[in-house]
Amino acid sequence: MAGTMGGAMNMDGGDPRMNSSAGLGFGVASEVTRPAALKLHDPSITFEEYMHYAAITRADDRHITVGQEDTALSVAGLKGLNPFAKKREPAVETVTQMNEKTASSSPDRQPYTITEEEYVQASRAVRTATWGAVFFLITTDILGPFSTAWAFRQMGYGPGAVLYTIFAAFAGYGGYLLWRMFLGLDSDKYPLRTYGDIAFRVYGQTVRYGVNILQTFQLLFNVGIIIVTNGQSLSQMAAKGPNLDQNGACFIVLCFVWAIAGMLLGQIRTLARLGHLANFAIWLNVIVIIATMAVVAHSTPNYVAANTAYMINPGPVITTAGPPAGVGFQGQIVGLMQAVYSYGGAMLFVEFMAEMKRPWDFWKGMLCAQTFIYFVYMLFGLFVYSYQGQFTIIIAYQGISNYAWQTVANAFGLTSGLIAALLYGNIGIKVVYNNVLMEFFRFPSLATKAGKLAWIAVVPVYWALAFIIASAIPQVSNLSGFIAAFCILQFSYTFPPFLHMGFQIKKAAIQSGEGFDPATGQTVRHDNGMKRWIRGYKKDIALNTFHLIFFLGSFVTAVLGVYSAIIGMIASYATGATSTFSCNSPVL
Predict the structure, then answer these.
(1) 428: closest CA among 401, 394, 463, 403?
(2) pLDDT at 35 over 50
(3) Which distant-in-sequence residues (6+ apart) come within 8 Å of 380 by Cβ?
(4) Is 240 helix (H, G, I), strand (E, B) or coil?
(5) Sequence spans of domains, the chain
(6) What does each C-alpha distance from 316 to 34, 313, 323, 391 come to in angstroms?
(7) Between 328 and 282, the higher pLDDT residue
(8) CB–CB of 29/116 below 8 Å?
(9) Does residue 80 surpass a pLDDT of 60?
């Protein structure tokens, strides 16, 4: 989903499945290996070894039970679906506590002498998320619901409904592929932490770098989009009259206010501290959705905002079954990208699964979330478009003409938007810090004092870059369309079939007598190179060919989306509808 916020994730530089004091050494009977000896992205570790330990972990997962209070739906509070509800303290000691107790009880005994079983228990003690928590995390959405009506404005009823349905189905299938690969490659010894980790284990370091760069790019632009959106909301609230056509505050200054707020509040390093706010943001969005639908059904469209944003003159509301007149192929593609944006949560699916007690159950949370989002988006989008037609604004509640209700919706939108931006920024900065600053520039771990000081310095730089993006491209429709095509579409539609094709080929290429031998720590292969790839492809040629077509189709769609968004930006600048670093609000 667009705006997916990982409120329950632990991404403070450490792996959520491994304590920083020890790693898991399956090859040693009485001791576990320190993580320094287990390089996270070690090219010498083979695909077969990852699969071997994943099979052991999955077998153990089947015996993990989830308490009734974690899954049951409660009318009073939806306890099972709330990832931020207070959880019971695990009865298992953490690895750090074990080490401290070992050192204090016997001065002659060295730390890290922890048995394999003790480590597994301690490692799994920090995995607390249930499939209900995953449901909440995926549906914690900000921008997505409010852009669907504009997507129908660009495509019409028929194409809009059909394409939203198709993209919902393929987004679910992409999530399913990620889930299958996670089960096959993740283990207690070699845990998967990010989307890039799957890319590394299937195709190597270069593809991992590409995935991490796109993830960083997407999160940064998401923060920029929210800065623009909140700037627009504040500009409407700051207007001096209900007609929204009188001078208010300078738009660029209002955007800068949110950048400063992000620099200050972004100093919160742990997402757990933002957890309750993230849960609160869900219900704020529900209120705004209901209020928007109720108000647009009993009021005229916001003609001033529509004219300012799209140069549409007042007149009767017009809706169309097919693409409306005046909206060309490029405009329809940008509208289609809003459907992509709506289902853009796959980027963080691996992080969600890494937090789960039972990754086997991920499909339940994903299926419920995708189904819920699909029906809510369809209902909201069709309803608002039916009442506002060609006057529909990209952020639907900003198209409310009733000034009082518009202000209420904007106030709620500002709050939930800031929460989303903080979470995006938190995750985005950690992606950059862990994968760029630590890996290439030897920055200290965020768990250290030096790392915490580095965080203080990095946060303002990140938010400053997001502010520059927001001020340079203050077009929510084209900017969100661009990021949907360039990044989101890849994570939800292009990468899953591409990665699974490589995963399936490598798996099917393993012959009798080949595989990883835990006794020797060696992997046996009878051949290498292209011969293995061809053999693996042929063994499941129908599925692999389908995934190849799926991958190529998604890639072509992405190219069309990027091209259309850029053409739309150029046209908007050329007509004067948009100007960079301007005091004029895009909706005033």
Answers:
(1) 463
(2) no
(3) 145, 148, 149, 289, 292, 293, 396
(4) coil
(5) 35-65+92-508+540-575
(6) 70, 10, 18, 10
(7) 328
(8) yes
(9) no
Distance CA 542, CA 283 (A): 44
CA geometry: angle 142, 226, 466, nearest 5 deg: 140
For the chain, the first-to-last Cα distance in angstroms comes to: 29
Instruction: Give the SS3 label for residue 197.
Output: helix
Which residue carries 């004219």 as its tokens? 307
Beta-carbon-side half-sphere exposure of residue 515 (alpha carbons within 13 Å): 12
DSSP β-ladder status, 522-524 and 515-517: antiparallel
Compute the Cα dihedral for 327, 332, 333, 337 and give only its sign: positive
Q: Examine the pLDDT at 82 and tell me if it is beyond 60.
A: no
CA-CA distance, 187 to 516, in Å (whole number)? Answer: 15
Residue with tokens 């989101």: 488
Q: Check if the beta carbon of residue 484 is closer than 8 Å to that of residue 341.
A: yes
Q: Which of 115, 99, 102 has its CA nearest to residue 32?
A: 115
Q: How many CA atoms, within 13 angstroms, populate the side-chain half-sphere of residue 381?
A: 32
Model confidence pLDDT, tens digit, residues 332-373: 999 989 888 877 777 888 888 887 888 888 999 888 888 888
Q: How many other CB atoms sit within 10 Å of the CB of residue 253? A: 13
Please provide the average confidence, as pLDDT, over all residues in the chain.
80
Q: What is the pLDDT of residues 178-194, one digit of tens each?
A: 999 999 999 988 988 88
Task: Answer yes or no: are the C-beta atoms of 6 and 348 closer than 8 Å.
Answer: yes
Pick 74 or 187 by higher pLDDT.
187
Per-residue pLDDT for 445 more than 60? yes
**Cα separation, 500 vs 203, whole angstroms:** 11
Q: Which architecture characterizes domain 35-65+92-508+540-575 according to CATH?
A: Up-down Bundle (1.20)
Per DSSP, the chain holds a count of helices (H) and strands (E) of 23, 2
Q: At what angle do helices 144-155 and 362-388 cross, to 10 degrees?
A: 50
Which amino acid is residue 330, in one-letter code? Q
For the segment 430-436, the average pLDDT, to the nearest whole number, is: 85
Per residue, the 3-state secondary structure of 448-483, as one string, reads CHHHHHHHHHHHHHHHHHHHHHHHHCCCHHHHHHHH
How do residues 513-557 score in pLDDT, each as one tens digit?
A: 999 999 999 999 999 999 999 999 999 999 999 999 999 999 999
Structure tokens at 110: 């060295």
Tokens 């693409």 locate to: 323
